[in-house]
Design brief:
Largest sheet: none
Structural class: mainly alpha
Distance between the termini: 27 Å
Number of helices: 6
Shape: globular
Helix content: 40-55%
């Protein structure tokens, strides 16, 4: 039996410009740019941060929630904003500082994930587990 390799396309993620679009077709161009950066840089940052961010599995579930068409627009924008802060190099505390670099990211992510937790589904969490495995990201349990 051959294990299936999951890609982002297998999860039918919204493209960045659609993730930043409301039900009436109005697009938030700033959020669309952030969403594009998140999609582009997410996995490389996750691989670097996995050992320093104890909630990495929930962060990845939040990523899938942010690009899910069934997630309400405001929730998508909230998650995209937090994930953009996580993946972009400009930070209050630079991520390169060993031990404390992801502290500010973690605080923001924990707050946002708690705020939108009712929108992060079991399916998002299952996708996160699979994707972390596929990307060979070790998660301590």
């Amino acid at each position: 039996m051959v294990d299936k390799h999951y890609t982002e396309d297998d999860f039918e993620l919204l493209p960045p410009e659609k993730a930043a679009e409301d039900d009436k077709g109005h697009r938030d161009t700033s959020a669309a740019k952030k969403a594009a950066n998140v999609r582009k840089k997410f996995w490389s940052v996750v691989k670097k941060a996995a050992r320093q961010v104890p909630i990495i599995e929930e962060v990845v579930a939040g990523y899938y929630c942010a690009f899910d068409a069934s997630t309400p627009f405001r929730v998508r924008l909230t998650l995209i904003g937090a994930l953009a802060y996580f993946v972009l190099p400009l930070d209050v505390v630079p991520d390169m500082i060993l031990g404390i670099g992801f502290t500010d990211d973690l605080a923001l992510l924990a707050y946002v994930l708690k705020t939108v937790h009712s929108h992060i589904t079991d399916e998002h969490r299952l996708r996160a587990k699979r994707a972390l495995s596929e990307h060979d990201v070790y998660v301590e349990r």
